[in-house]
Write a structure and sequence with these properties.
single chain; 346 residues; alpha/beta; Rossmann fold; 6-stranded parallel β-sheet
């Protein structure tokens, strides 16, 4: 059984014990208050009677408001309240403490587990900031079956994301901190998304990430297009401005609605889950024709990116050149299969 499941079962058991013991403690308080009020013959208020009950079961030792000297029945009742109440109060406090400690222990175990999983990751993507934009980045990585580690210092945002993706690997912390990025496995990562809501934070993330891994591909978000040059100077390979992209999308919806509808359906169709992907062609295929590539029936070759230009809809007799990249429409499964085939042939 996983540690998370064990901790959850322990937490539920402790909560049940706490609820039942608290209910019994309330009952004892009611019984004690009523008993002292009756013993006093109604000469004291219910607050005085409750006070007597509380100082008895809590062993505070303050003076008695209701005089029990010479009252054998009252003293016997006090002994009953003390014996039952003191033990039960200690039991409630013990369970309450256990609940707090168990919660902290569960959180500590969960963090250690995430750090171990992130440390084992390689050729993965790091998503810094899983707010309004980062969530869609994570969603796309999930849909295309790409490994990733999310980094955010907001527990609320992490909890919201894990509700959708329970198996999400994450590190809770500040992405501008080099130690946090190290925990996310930046030295073995393939790329990083700086998509917090603050351009200044994204700038520091880019700078920190570039210093930690010079080979890393970094894509940064910027809310103000004036920050784009600064982000590129700090180490970003590409900068995306959501307001700019949103404006282009609105214009496209107006002038080419069918194309936009096609792209939307392609992205949202969870059955086929088609994407336009790119794959690097190994040197072992240089000098061979495109027909030598074993393309899956779920893949459609759209273009080839050469060193200097694009070749759209390449024919079967196109001769592969060094550093060519395939641009194809395919499924995540077919992309992985094609990638494995190309790597095995290298």
């Amino acid at each position: 059984m996983k540690c998370g499941t064990i901790c959850s079962a322990m937490s539920q058991q402790i909560r049940r014990k706490l609820i039942w013991s608290s209910a019994i403690l309330v009952a004892i308080l009611l019984i004690g208050t009523t008993g002292y009020w009756l013993i006093a013959g109604g000469e004291h208020s219910l607050i005085d009677a409750l006070y007597m009950t509380v100082i008895t079961i809590s062993t505070i030792g303050y003076g008695e408001i209701i005089d029990l000297s010479g009252n054998a029945a009252g003293r016997i009742f006090t002994m009953f309240v003390a014996i039952s109440g003191i033990g039960l109060l200690a039991y409630v406090v013990t369970n309450l403490t256990a609940l707090v400690v168990e919660g902290e222990l569960s959180e500590a175990l969960r963090r250690r587990k995430m750090e171990r999983m992130a440390h084992r990751s390689q050729d993965h993507y790091i998503v810094c900031g899983i707010g309004s934009v980062g969530l869609y980045v994570v969603n796309e990585l999930q849909a295309t079956k790409r490994p990733y580690v999310a980094v955010d210092n907001s527990k609320a945002d992490i909890d919201r994301a894990t509700e959708t993706w329970p198996n999400m690997v994450y590190i809770e912390g500040d992405a501008t901190d080099a130690d946090i990025l190290m925990k996310a496995g930046i030295q073995k990562a393939k790329g990083l998304f700086a998509c917090t809501g603050d351009d200044n934070q994204n700038l520091v993330v880019c700078l920190t990430a570039r210093q930690a891994n010079a080979r890393l591909r970094i894509v940064a978000r910027c809310n103000d297009v004036k920050s784009a040059d600064k982000l590129k100077t700090a180490g970003a390979d590409a900068v995306v401005a959501p307001p700019f992209i949103g404006g282009l999308r609105m214009a496209s919806e107006m002038v080419r609605p069918t194309v936009v509808s096609f792209l939307d359906i392609m992205l949202r169709d969870t059955g086929k889950n088609l994407r336009v992907e790119e794959l690097e062609i190994p040197h072992s295929f240089v000098g061979k024709s495109v027909s030598s590539l074993k393309m899956s029936s779920d893949s459609l070759l759209l273009a080839i990116r050469t060193q200097k230009d694009w070749v759209y809809n390449p024919g079967a007799h196109y001769i592969i050149q060094p550093d060519d990249r395939l641009i194809l429409m395919t499924t995540p499964e077919a992309r992985l299969e094609m990638g494995q085939y190309l790597n095995a042939s290298d």
